[in-house]
Structure formats: structure tokens, C-alpha cells
Amino acid sequence: MTRSTQAELDFASAAAEVSALDRERQELGFVTRVFASTSLPYKQPPASTEVWYRRNNKLLLTITPGKSVDDAGKTINYGFPFGAVPRLMLAWMSTAAVQTQQPLLELPDSMAEFMRDLGIGNATGGKSGSLSRFRDQTNRLLHANLTLKQEGDPALDMGAKLNLASVWKVWWEQEPNTREPSYIRLSEEFFQLVRQSPVPMSMHALRLFQQYPVQMDLYWWLCYRLPFLKKPTLVTWEQLYEQFGFQMAATAAGLFSFRKSITDSLAKVLAVYTKAREKVEVTKHGLMLTKCEPHVPFKTQLLSAS
Questions:
Q1: What's the alpha-carbon Rg for the chain, to the nearest Å?
Q2: Is residue 246 a contact partner of residue 214, using CB atoms and an 8 Å limit?
Q3: Could you list the pLDDT tens digit for every one of the 306 residues in the chain?
Q4: Which DSSP category does 157 fall into?
Q5: Which of 1, 83, 160, 261 has its CA 20 to 30 A from that of 173?
Q6: Nearest to 247 by CA among 42, 36, 34, 86
């Protein structure tokens, strides 16, 4: 048996386990439509990158890294949030806000416990340990400056600042010697966005896809698009490239690799979101989407909270 065959069998087994978990003990999660429609970087952008951006039709998301200064007055650039951790944190913040209907989110007593809850695994110490990586990506996300812009009308300027948190206090010791809880207070803009437009999904599925963040993005994008379609819709490869991009060059070779990556990742997502297998068709021109039941059942009144 080849390594690739074994990997496919392992994934099929994991996908079946996710389906069983959702049937036995559903763990409903949420993400905002903004992040179900655009994407964060998948890997560290080049050092020369000043602004990260993604487009979905007329919606433009831009991200610039947060900055601070050290004790000597030297500028600290936190960098762009990228990979699975910021996506898991976005899902956790959105889910907690929908469930509690409060912007103040209290974290578990230990970050090791929090990492296990998110599905990241055990916390390991040291500069290259998982706890350091988790802290780095969390700081990148919380310090990042986000802007939304509505394009398409030359006579109209319309946009919004979307910093995710207004205040936070996070203790990073695995067993903090303090009774003060760690917390994140969502910004009013992000909190209202979460409450007004949450996209329901399975946290079991999201954790399965975390090794390949593009699968996370495709999964919650389909959770957003498919249940609310009014008619079959073609999303072209050009539109998908603007939304996801994979940080590949917009050359013939890059676009070919992008299309293959989308197709391969889609097969993994549809192995979990099985209701959508007959509702997403790969065509020469893009993905043809047809209305489909949500991956996980949800209460409509929860989505209409305002």
C-alpha cells in the first residue's frame, strides 16, 4: 500500500468518524459571512507584503498587521495571521458570541485546556512549541487591522473598520497563578456582524480540516452559500481565485495548480458534507452550485438574532 493510499484511507475513516460524532453529539459552530466569503493567508506572506486582500464579488477585505514598540522604542510588527489557528480562533469567538449573546468572552483557566478544546492538540513549550505558535497567531489576529469595502459603484464610497477585539487580557502560563480570568471583548462592529449573520457549521468537521486551511475555507463557504441559493449558480475560476488564491502566481501554471488544489480540497470537504456531493459540480468554467440542505441542522431563530 502506498503512502498516498494510506492517507486517503485514513481521511475516509476520519470523515466517517466526524459524521458519526455529528449524529451522536452535534457540536454546532459559527463563523461570520464575511470570513465565509473571503480568506486569510494560508502561509506567511512575503516580507514585502504591506496589505493582504481578498475579493468576493463586490466585497473587498483588506488586512494590515498590527504594530507596537518594545522597551527600547523599536517597532514591533506582529505580522499577518495565517494558517489554521486564526481560523479556529475566529470560529471560537463567533460561536461563543452567538451562544452567549455577549461580546465579553471568557477563556478557559489554562491555555493548554483551550488548545485541546480547539482541537490543536497538547501544548508544548519552547520557542518552537505549539503554545508559542498559538500565542503568536492569536496576537497576530487580535492586533490585525481589518477593513471591509463595498465596491462596484463609482459614485459611492462605503466601508467599515472591522477590528475583531476592543479589549483583551490573556494569561499564557499553562497553569496561571492568578484568579483573574483570561478574556477577549469583541469589538461592537464584529459582535454585531456575528450576531446578524452567523453561518452554522460542524466544529467536528472544522477540526478535521485544520491541517489544510483551504479545506476549512471551502467548507464554511459551502455551508454559507448552498443552503441560501435561490437558483443554480456558477462561481467562475477567476472569482474563486480572487476569493481564495492560495498565494499562487496569476500565471497559466499558477492558475492550473490553483484549479487542481481547489478540486482536490473540494473532494475532501464533500466527503464530510455528504449532502452537497450532488450539489457541487466541477466544470470547465468553475463550480456550479445548487441549493442544498445545511450540513448541520440549526434553529432559524438563532440566525435572526439582532
A1: 20
A2: yes
A3: 676 677 777 787 888 888 777 777 778 999 999 999 999 999 999 999 999 999 988 999 999 999 999 999 999 999 999 999 999 999 999 999 999 999 999 998 888 889 998 988 888 888 888 999 999 999 999 999 999 999 988 899 998 999 999 999 998 875 555 568 899 999 999 999 999 889 999 999 999 999 899 999 999 999 999 999 999 999 999 999 988 876 777 777 888 889 999 999 999 999 999 999 999 999 999 999 999 999 987 654 344 333
A4: -
A5: 83
A6: 42
